[in-house]
Each structure stands twice: as structure tokens, then as C-alpha cells.
User: Which sequence fits this backbone?
């Protein structure tokens, strides 16, 4: 699934994947996808990645994997497909923000060549009000 025909299902997937930052609604996803710079990768109903490319820089806006599909390569596939699409759109670099306490995601990103380039203290707010630092990770995208 790489079209936007089932935004409710994508929003439900996002809701199953996130508490912090809060999950995005179907209307928020639609708003993001209204931009010509934004693209959706949804290789199956178990994972999705939303990215955007402006000039030569790609941003991974979100990646979501259903809890029952974690540890099976679905997130890695979505990430790689995002990077491939970003390259096709002319991106030379990819960046993302990830909660400093999201160890599984950080492990995935590091294993795929992302490195920390900065931090945003207190960027995310947990449901209990706790502030969580965001790590900014970057990766050069070699053009094929």
C-alpha cells in the first residue's frame, strides 16, 4: 500500500505505534501528504514511513511498525524504501528526530548508518508531562 486511500488505517497503525510523540490522525496525515514534497511508503499494512524531500535534504517524518510485526524486518524495509524514494527525489542527506528513550528505533537507525548530529532538549512531551530529548540523526544518501 503506497497510496493514500486508507488514511484511517494508517492513522490506526500510527496510534498502535506511538504514545510519545502523540499519534497522528488521518486528517493530519492527509494534510502532510497534500504537499508535493511529502511521500508515503507503506509496503504492507504492518509498517509505514512518511518522508519529505526539499531540495537535496530528506526528512523522515515518522516511521511506524505494528507491535506484532516488530523485530521481523518491517521497520528496516520501510526505512530502506523511504531512503530509496528520497534518493529518487534527489536527496543527498537524510535526517530524523527520535526520542532519546526509543532504544529500539535508535538501534535500527544506527545499524542503517545514521549518526547523531544534534539534540533537542525537551522536544517531546510524554502523556505524564515528562519532557524527552530528541536525538537528531543524519545519514548521507549516496546517489546510485
Assistant:
Amino acid at each position: 500500500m503506497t497510496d493514500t486511500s486508507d488514511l484511517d488505517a494508517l492513522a490506526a497503525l500510527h496510534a498502535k505505534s506511538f504514545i510519545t510523540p502523540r499519534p497522528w490522525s488521518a486528517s493530519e496525515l492527509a494534510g502532510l501528504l497534500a504537499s508535493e514534497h511529502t511521500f508515503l511508503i507503506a509496503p504492507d499494512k504492518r509498517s509505514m514511513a512518511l518522508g519529505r524531500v526539499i531540495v537535496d535534504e530528506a526528512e523522515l517524518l515518522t516511521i511506524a511498525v505494528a507491535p506484532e510485526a516488530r523485530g521481523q524486518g518491517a521497520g528496516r524495509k520501510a526505512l530502506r524504501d523511504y531512503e530509496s524514494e528520497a534518493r529518487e527525489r534527489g536527496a543527498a542527506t537524510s535526517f530524523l528526530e527520535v526520542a532519546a528513550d526509543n532504544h529500539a528505533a535508535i538501534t535500527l537507525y544506527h545499524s542503517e548508518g545514521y549518526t547523531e548530529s544534534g539534540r533537542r532538549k525537551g522536544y517531546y512531551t510524554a502523556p505524564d508531562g515528562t519532557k524527552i530529548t530528541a536525538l537528531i540523526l543524519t545519514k548521507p544518501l549516496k546517489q546510485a
Remarks:
- The two ends are 25 Å apart (CA to CA).
- The CA atoms of residues 65 and 72 lie 10 Å apart.
